[in-house]
Design brief:
With 272 residues, this protein is of the alpha/beta class. It has 12 helices and 8 strands. Strands 1-2-3-4-5-6-7-8 form an 8-stranded parallel β-barrel, surrounded by 6 helices. Strand 4, helix 7 and strand 5 form a beta-alpha-beta unit. Helix 2 packs across helix 4 and helix 8 runs parallel beside helix 9. The radius of gyration is 22 Å and the shape is elongated. Bound molecules: 3-methyl-2-oxobutanoic acid (KIV).
Amino acid sequence: MDYKEILALKNKRKITMLTAYDYPLAALVDRAGIDMILVGDSLANVVLGLDSTTKVGMSEMIHHAKAVTRAVKEALVVGDMPYESYQVNPEESVKNARRFIDEAKCGAVKLEWFERCLEVTGQIIKAGIPVMGHIGLTPQTADKLGGFKVQGKDAEAAKRLIEQALALENLGCFSIVLECVPDKIAGMITQKLKIPTIGIGAGINCDGQVLVIHDLLGLFERFTPKFVKKYINLSPMILQALEEYRKEVTEMKFPGKEHSFTIKEEELKKLD
Ligand code: KIV
């Protein structure tokens, strides 16, 4: 799928998006028919055990994006630009965005809103790279937003979000993530835009939805935001399997004959 096909889905059907960071999960997400796969900088939290998405850099993002695109046959893979790649170094942003496309074979990049967002996004789009915007709660700059809180809760803040969304659309973004925004405001933004909105904690009125895959699968136990639905709780199931393995090894129940290889008796005798 390319970004134009995502654009064309607006007002036709809901769009699905999930994160993935490695080959096996990306292959499953793709086989499930999910439209877009985000190699999110949430990699920092759910895979690398870091306490902030700002701590992940280009080398880690490209490394994981490559693993994802190796697995994906259908979905549009979106590379999430890490904090250092465009907020700390705005002058490097086009070069870094291009690395997601040329080296990691992604089909688009995503950038979070920040003071110089329009300038940087404009440059990347001018360079021919499809961009997904991201407004509302932007984790890379959450400290400037008063922490990890719902955004756009009063009329003035909601107006700012609407203006940001329209400005990103005017620049040529092909879609926008709305994170932690009241459902009615997300609905208003969705109505005003010609490009699809993808919600996370933004209610049912968006054009599509995205979740962090480790949250959906119950693989991330440190915290669970209100907007997450765990479709399965894998952590206790995995733990049970690992404890069983430990028990069977220590009790010499594994490996069994069916997991072992044999040698003919006559060959063995030659070793006597
Ligand atoms: O990094 C990420 O996983 C994201 C999603 C929450 C949209 O940006």
